[in-house]
Amino acid sequence: MTEAFLNQIRQFIVEEIIPLEAKFLHDWTATAHALEAKRDKIRALGLWGLHLPTALGGMGLSLVEFGQLSEVLATSPLGHYAFNAQAPDIGNTELLHQFGTKYQQENFLHPLAEGKIRSCFAMTEPEFAGSNPINMATTAVLEGDEYVVNGHKWYTSSADGATFAIVMAITNPDNPPHQRASMLIVPNATKGFQIVRNISVMGEAGSGWMSHAEVRFDNCRIPKENLIGEAGKGFALAQHRLGPGRIHHCMRWVGISERALDMTIRYALKRELNIGEPLANQQVIQHWIAESRANINAARLMVLDTAKKIDANGAAATRNEISAIKFFVPKVMLEVLDRALQVHGGLGMSDDTILAFWYRHERASRIYDGADEVHKTALAKHILKSYQ
Ligand SMILES: Cc1cc2nc3c(=O)[nH]c(=O)nc-3n(C[C@H](O)[C@H](O)[C@H](O)COP(=O)(O)OP(=O)(O)OC[C@H]3O[C@@H](n4cnc5c(N)ncnc54)[C@H](O)[C@@H]3O)c2cc1C
Pocket around ligand 1: residues whose beta carbon is below 6 Å from it? Predict the structure, then answer.
């Protein structure tokens, strides 16, 4: 991926997307409308679906290349959405591209890749610890040519306005624990699919793509053709979804950190404690800038190194590195955001900049896709085992 190409994307984000942030913080529906016009512009510039495999009209990027692109897109919370590379759709796109049948690809993958529809991913249940997802109560029972889905999920991100959910449900209760569940496509319009609410997260329930729903499946009947892969292979599929997914998240967090540091530096140079005495003259601020710079550089190199190893050897062989970045990068980002907020003082606490939004919503980075503690334990156990 050339620097000139990344600069083109960078410029688009700065000129076309960042100006929408003020609206976005107060009104998702209006922002989504404005973003459609930007998406058309991206299509016209030939920049649509860059992240997709070549078979779907994309550039067939390696994970390292996608990581570099993702960092640039992440400098605005709207960047990935504008380029149709947003979670959870990007993970579902990858999954359906690799494992979907022709029917599933035509009906769900292609409209998703074209940005005509959105999707969501429903695995976590309020009644069970998501950190050990083999425990779940949602079931999908085969009756003739249909699966009947019953269950209760929450934190189904972006379910509001989505066309379908990929649902993890028990299909083979008598199998060993990791082979009991399957992934199934449940269209949101299916009778019995109910969005109970958009959960208020850090004070905001949000809407549309910017929301996390509690959902119920009450005797939802779907064609048996909606089963992805083989019955009982849901967790194996989830593993495929998670390796690259963690690179996506981590490079997004590097991009957020980079913008927060940029804002810190600009504000420290501009804000004067006395006439002619900018905040940047204070040594404590200088140290924060230096620490943020060093930590972001370290985080980026760790993630790109992990992406390179996944590209070469696959995610299973890279699990230690994946665990390491999953707890290391959020820590870096949250520290950088905290310093940025502190430097901005009262302005940082307000929603007049994007910092407070990130400070609220990115705290979840230490919880989803494996809580810090889970990844630290997994990494330490592998290290200890290698000494025995
Ligand atoms: C903003 C957001 C978006 C999300 N989006 C989705 C989505 O789209 N689809 C979906 O299915 N789910 C989603 N989730 C759910 C997410 O995957 C779960 O929250 C996560 O897996 C943790 O599960 P839990 O919340 O049940 O916490 P629990 O598993 O109950 O864990 C609670 C806490 O216990 C600690 N803990 C857990 N395991 C260990 C351990 N082994 N050792 C030590 N301490 C431990 C950790 O501190 C953890 O935070 C989302 C969550 C959030 C916050």
Answer: 88, 121-124, 129-131, 155-157, 201, 212, 364, 367-368, 371, 373-374, 377
The first and second tokens of residue 151, run together, are 């269950």
Distance 9 CA to ligand 1 centre (A): 33
pLDDT at 97: 95
338/127 Cα distance (integer angstroms): 32
Predicted local distance difference test score (pLDDT) of residue 240: 80
pTM of the model: 0.96
Round to whole Å and give the CA distance between 112 and 115: 5
- pLDDT tens digit sequence for 66-78: 999 999 999 999 9
Give me ligand 1 centre to Cα 199, in Å: 15
Q: Which residues of the chain carry a pLDDT beneath 70?
A: none
Residue (of 36, 77, 32) closest to 351 by Cα position: 77
Q: Which of 136, 219, 145, 244 is nearest to 183 (CA)?
A: 136
Rounded to the nearest angstrom, the distance between the alpha carbon of 371 and the centre of ligand 1 is 6
Q: Is 200 exposed, middle or buried (0-12, 13-18, 19+ CB in 10 A)?
A: exposed
What does the pLDDT look like over 130-183, one tens digit per residue? 999 999 999 999 999 999 999 999 999 999 999 999 999 999 999 999 999 999
**Ligand 1 centre distance from Cα of residue 80 (Å):** 23
Domains and CATH numbers, the chain: 3-100 (1.10.540.10), 119-228 (2.40.110.10), 236-387 (1.20.140.10)
* Distance of alpha carbon 114 from alpha carbon 255, whole angstroms: 25
Question: How many CA atoms within 13 Å lie on the side-chain side of 269?
Answer: 7
